[in-house]
Specification:
ABC transporter involved in vitamin B12 uptake, BtuC; 338 residues; mainly alpha
Length: 338
């Protein structure tokens, strides 16, 4: 009873935090537009009025801040659920799409799409998923050849990540026109999000979320170990492959919006499991709430810290994420030594 009450409190805090962060995201920015004008523009909808001030507020809200807030929301839930899927299905709390090369693979193919098909947002999203999936398959293949241990997964992921990152850096150096904001893409950020990229990434997010929901009952069985899960009728190999597929769908869609944003998929799943335990379906819902809220908070800090200049949100995440990664690593080592 007490656990249920605590979980309900965590849900309520997450919902309120998400609402507050979303409101601040659309009401805060680098242009001096009053909150009252923005609120009236919100009530009017996407219809652009004739008055100059009201028109400016409407354009800023619906063409700049609302797509940015929506991109934060989708990328936050996509990266956090992707990290949760990887950590549970591969039984390693240190895994995240950015750490094992999935983000880098997606980013590399986004840049290729920018060269081959400039301005085609739907192809950019498709290439992003293909790159993420290719990177994940390479990592799993390399790790399986070396024994598929937790250490080899991370090492293989780091190697693949460096490989694709080097490719991305080369493309940005020789073809800077392949991406609008080179620094923002490399670190991850939302300054160049467009409505078109949002629209064409939605099918990937929807497919990833639907597949995750279908897989959820079986994913809980991974906690029992592969042999026990097989004994209960779960096709472990297929389920693990589908979990990686779902993770790459979500991570690829996120990268197509926000660039090579790291650490969300590491931080949020670990904190969620720490707060609520190992019930996968509960943790999905919490990732849906806390992932976007956390990413919106980082984006707000990046926008306001050196106002009117803007930092990439990925820079803030790196400052938070690196110490968090080290703390998880040290905590695991301490547990193993007990």
């Amino acid at each position: 009873m007490q656990d249920r009450k605590r979980l309900r409190t965590i849900y309520i805090i997450g919902i309120l935090l998400l609402i507050v962060m979303f409101a601040l995201s659309i009401l805060t920015g680098n242009r001096d537009v009053s909150s009252s004008d923005l609120f009236r523009a919100l009530l009017r909808g996407s219809v652009i009025p004739e008055e100059k001030e009201a028109r400016l507020a409407s354009v800023i809200l619906w063409q700049v801040r609302m797509p940015r807030a929506a991109a934060c929301l989708l990328s936050g839930l996509g990266l956090s659920i992707s990290g949760l899927l990887l950590q549970v299905s591969l039984n390693n709390s240190l895994l995240a799409p950015g750490i094992i090369g999935i983000n880098s693979g997606a980013g590399f193919f986004v840049l290729i799409a920018g060269i081959l098909f400039p301005g085609a947002a739907y192809i950019r999203s498709a290439f992003s998923f293909f790159g993420a999936f290719l990177a994940a398959m390479i990592v799993v293949f390399l790790a399986s050849k070396a024994g598929l241990s937790k250490t080899t997964l991370i090492l293989a992921g780091v190697a693949v990540s460096y490989l694709f990152t080097a490719g991305s850096d080369a493309i940005i150096t020789f073809r800077p026109d392949s991406v609008a904001d080179k620094v923002g893409f490399s670190l991850g950020g939302f300054s160049s999000v467009s409505s078109a990229s949002l629209r064409f990434s939605l099918p990937l997010f929807a497919a990833g979320l639907i597949l995750t929901a279908v897989l959820a009952p079986g994913v809980d069985l991974f906690l029992l170990g592969d042999e026990s899960a097989e004994g209960l009728g779960l096709p472990v190999r297929m389920w693990r492959f589908l979990c990686i597929l779902s993770a790459t769908l979500l991570a690829g869609a996120s990268v197509s919006l926000c660039g090579l944003l790291g650490f969300v998929g590491l931080i949020i799943p670990n904190l969620v499991r720490l707060a609520s335990g190992n019930h996968f379906r509960t943790n999905i819902v919490l990732c849906l709430l806390y992932g976007p809220a956390f990413l919106m908070l980082c984006d707000l800090i990046a926008r306001q810290m050196f106002y009117p200049y803007e930092l990439p949100a990925g820079l803030i995440l790196s400052v938070i994420g690196v110490p968090f990664f080290l703390s998880v690593l040290l905590r695991r080592k301490k547990k193993l030594s007990l």
